[in-house]
Design brief:
Layout: H1 2-19, H2 21-42, E1 50-54, H3 60-65, E2 71-76, H4 79-92, E3 97-101, E4 114-120, H5 129-139, E5 140-151, H6 157-170, H7 180-189, E6 192-205, H8 206-212, H9 220-231, E7 243-249, E8 256-271
Parallel strand pairs: 1-2, 1-4, 2-3, 4-5
Antiparallel strand pairs: 5-8, 6-8, 7-8
Helix pairs in contact: 5-7, 6-9
Length: 272
């Protein structure tokens, strides 16, 4: 049953990101470049590093790291996402960047193969985030570094459940957004010592957020997600900091746009 559930989740991810590969790839390049600057500093990226980026999506983070390291492999379940990454790498002349179709929970590399392992915005889409962190640790050399970027939720269970409910309404491939304590547990359990953390708020409008998930005004996912998010405006129950914008209407016209933010954590760690 566990294997069946896992394969079902993989199918959801492939379906969702196949349909949104182009729009997703175009929307994240600038953001990931800025995030790479922060993460590269935190993990002390070096020109001699051999790197792997698990669940790399369109490879935006890998592409931003490529000029800083010796070689980098991007691994993802969705061929359509990797096709966007390969095109971007060719256009950028990133000859040290290669892409491989694979499962981030069980990657086809030997133990202690890499100096640096990365993953970004992937753990809330996988059946078992602990296994991804474990794979990062497994393929790292002793003293190697790991870098993670992802959204995270408050420790309060009620708020975390509402956050997940909204995310799943927007994107059925969402599994579970981790709390900070869960990140810490997974890193420690995999033999990774956290060396630094950094938190950012990433402002976005509701319509922009939905567009990157492949949803437009009037779509059932759009309507339901907006309904749920609006219900949290008075108390910010899900941690998205939503508020109506006085300056603009949403793309469907009439109703006010919603300004919101995703809370993002950067984590750097070392294999002990």
């Amino acid at each position: 049953m566990a294997d069946t559930n896992q394969e079902r989740q993989h199918d959801l991810v492939r379906d969702r990101f196949t349909r949104t590969a182009e729009v997703f790839g175009g929307s994240v390049v600038k953001t990931r470049a800025a995030e790479a600057e922060t993460l590269a500093r935190m993990v002390a990226a070096r020109r001699s590093d051999h790197v792997v980026d698990l669940a790399c999506g369109t490879g935006a983070l890998a592409l931003a790291f490529a000029p800083r390291v010796r070689s980098i492999f991007g691994i993802d379940l969705t061929p359509a996402m990797l096709a966007v990454g390969q095109r971007s790498a060719r256009e950028a002349g990133a000859r040290n960047l290669a892409f491989v179709v694979g499962n981030a929970q069980q990657i086809a590399f030997a133990n202690e193969s890499f100096d640096l392992a990365l993953t970004s915005y992937a753990l809330h889409h996988v059946p078992d985030g602990r296994r991804v962190i474990g794979e990062m640790a497994r393929v790292l050399k002793r003293g190697g570094r790991a870098g993670v970027i992802d959204i995270f939720v408050p420790e309060d269970r009620r708020r975390a459940e509402m956050h997940d409910r909204i995310e799943r309404a927007r994107d059925p491939s969402h599994t579970h957004t981790l709390a900070r304590s869960e990140f810490e547990e997974y890193f420690a359990g995999s033999g990774l010592r956290i060396t630094g953390t950094h938190v950012e708020e990433h402002p976005v409008t509701f319509d922009e957020w939905m567009r990157t998930a492949g949803s437009q005004p009037g779509d059932p996912e759009y309507v339901e997600t907006r309904r749920l998010l609006e219900a949290t405006i008075p108390d910010d129950l899900a941690g998205f900091h939503p508020r109506y914008s006085a300056a603009k209407a949403c793309e469907s016209g009439g109703a006010p746009e919603i300004d919101m933010a995703n809370t993002v954590i950067f984590i750097a760690a070392e294999k002990i």
